[in-house]
What we know:
Helices cover 11% and strands 38% of the residues. The longest helix is centred in the C-terminal third of the chain and has 11 residues, at 141-151. The protein has helices spanning 117-123, 141-151, 174-178; strands spanning 2-7, 10-14, 20-23, 36-42, 56-62, 66-70, 73-81, 92-100, 103-107, 128-132, 155-159, 183-186, 188-190, 199-203. It is mainly beta. It has a single domain, classed as Metallo-beta-lactamase, Chain A (4-Layer Sandwich). An 8-stranded mixed β-sheet has the order 6-7-8-9-10-11-14-12, covered by helices on one side.
Amino acid sequence: xxxxxxxxxxxxxxxxxxxxxxxxxxxxxxxxxxxxxxxxxxxxxxxxxxxxxxxxxxxxxxxxxxxxxxxxxxxxxxxxxxxxxxxxxxxxxxxxxxxxxxxxxxxxxxxxxxxxxxxxxxxxxxxxxxxxxxxxxxxxxxxxxxxxxxxxxxxxxxxxxxxxxxxxxxxxxxxxxxxxxxxxxxxxxxxxxxxxxxxxxxxxxxxxxx
Length: 210
């Protein structure tokens, strides 16, 4: 399985059998959404920086709670709170689990609720964790670290953080990265099997794909 980072909370997941999935395509946030085509696009919630499905050439849109199968990829969406007040401030968001090739990828959407045993039980374990770290609208750096410690992925990739040009009012990834002894950087991440201790990878945004 190959992962490319489109920016903000949007990733391009390319599975061995050829299935292509895009997560949370963004609208006008100050950085361009790459041109991309896919078999399916997942939407964690309806805020403009996560639901630009018109920006993706996709056969299927998944934006509700449920269990789905897309060309050999088993997908489960899990409701989470978008804030620390039980959803009273910003409503709900969906986390998405993608299972294929003996691997599980977990995209946490705009999760804002504190890390507890209850939410960890709902989310389950994952080999690859895609997690927001920029705070304000989601969990911040230190709460994100608790999720990493609870989920124990082989690979953790931060998302939803401030970069040059981004107009969304969130923090950068620096505080989150500072909480770990080692961080690597990559433009493409290929995962073939689970491996030991968590590896933190800061991804570079890619151009048009699909």
